[in-house]
Amino acid sequence: VRSPEGKIRLYCKGADTILLERLHPLNQDLSNVTTDHLNEYAGEGLRTLVLAYKDLEESYYEDWAERLRRASSVPEAREDRLARLYDEVERDMMLLGATAIEDKLQQGVPETIAILTLANIKIWVLTGDKQETAVNIGYSCKMLTDDVTEVFVVTGHTVLEVREELRKAREKMMDASHSTANGFSYQEKLCSSKLTSVLEAIAGEYALVINGHSLAHALEADMEVEFLETACACKAVICCRVTPLQKAQVVELVKKYKKAVTLAIGDGANDVSMIKTAHIGVGISGQEGIQAVLASDYSFSQFKFLQRLLLVHGRWSYLRMCKFLCYFFYKNFAFTMVHFWFGFFCGFSAQTVYDQYFITLYNIVYTSLPVLAMGVFDQDVPEQRSMEYPKLYEPGQLNLLFNKREFFICIAQGIYTSVLMFFIPYGVFADATRDDGAQLADYQSFAVTVATSLVIVVSVQIGLDTGFWTAINHFFIWGSLAAYFAILFAMHSDGLFQMFPNQFRFVGNAQNTLAQPTVWLTIALTTVVCIMPVVAFRFLKLDLKPELSDTVRYTQLVRKKQKTQHRCMRRVGRAGSRRSGYAFSHQEGFGELIMSGKNMRLSSLALAGFAARPSAGWIETLRKKKGGDSGAGSPDKTLKV
Questions:
Q1: Where is the P-type ATPase C-terminal domain (predicted)?
Q2: Which domain-ending residue is among 61, 83, 101?
């Protein structure tokens, strides 16, 4: 900054661990006082910065600016050249003071972190704040709680110190899990080959806090694995006073050695490199600018929305993609393997079972839209239940819905369907006859029967796989079936034959084939035999070994029934209360009149007159009449008005 007097002054702000080392020796006393204030502010959870300045000579500044311009234009090692120039000018500065601001947590941050932890999601905090501030933030957002057995703080300034502190942390964690846990002796636990499995079975909850200068040593090639395994054994990890580059290096370290999907979330320019390095980048739009939002894959305004992104939309996306792939492999194996079985009877002459147009339209028209609808709209449980049961997220972490086993199950089911799809019609057509006594076993009739069976079976199968039905699902599934029959009859119609006689030669074949009861019985038998094992297996699995999602769906069904019964009981209860409400009226009734034993009869005119008056008035009238009758001494006298 150039002042009105022409003097050039450099102002600098930054972390105390960096800036205090660049001060002039004359600032020692003020630096000690400022450090005490910074520690006090950090202990209260405030975010701190140090401010300093330096007066520059005109000649020095011009020379430095020229060297900066040349370094900026050199493509080779430009970053290193610029870093050396910045380090040169940011020396021997004078301390101005320090700032401390309160950066409150957004609403819902502790609850979100707690729920994500229940979903078995590891959460690490990478921040540029002081260690005391970072620890206080950890407690305020419930990452650090009273249940934590011990918090390991790594503050070593050399490689040996950092290695020793990490080793002591591992020893304490393993000692707490007993000396022979998991069948390993203490010496075997120290072996690198068994280190990972032992640390993953650590009993208790631990936390790791590491400073930026210690993290720089921990990220070196010969220590990064040791640091990663120690950190992964802890429930919470807080890295404080880290640079933007170190944030990205930590994410890259996890991606390199762990089979895990990483997600980085931040709101400032210092988080951009971390967001870009992670598999999934999330930016929070706020007062820190939009740099993080522009570099992210997803963005929203508050941290608490991360819970919905992961537990609802993320889980649904995984579920839909797995179902999409399983069904896609199944329907194509069922379609293709029929050709393989047909090859044994046609001498592998390249003759196809199906009509050429059916082969073209099978994946484009007949089976494409239903699977797309399932891949877009399907869900196993509602979003409220997904948020209520975080454990539903774990199958995605363990790849339970689509893996090698599920892949081979889809292939086996497709092969099983193809066997039945070919051999059941083949066996029926061997001796079947038409209604007119002619032989039914011709190639075109067989092709129509197999194709129709295939379309119906895969449509029923996707109906069983669909967990959430919408109007679009109904329209696509039943519409695809309707489109199949419409196209089938159109291709065997007389109109297309007259327009394209060389392409559509089998006029009326579909109509004649599907008019035979034997064909429909064959299609029904094939469908039932193909689908029944799937239905039986799912019923047995649901009854004997239900998954968490099955239990949640059953719980939801029970809740709906209970609500319906409760509404019915409330309706009955209200009707009964109206009938018995007279017994609890605040107005005086006819108890005294009834107990008197007198026969009081009112004419219809009197009743009409009393009904038009306030209740208290006509009751009082009856009292007066009663009193007059008593004075006359006529207990059986009839009252007339």
A1: 293-546
A2: 101
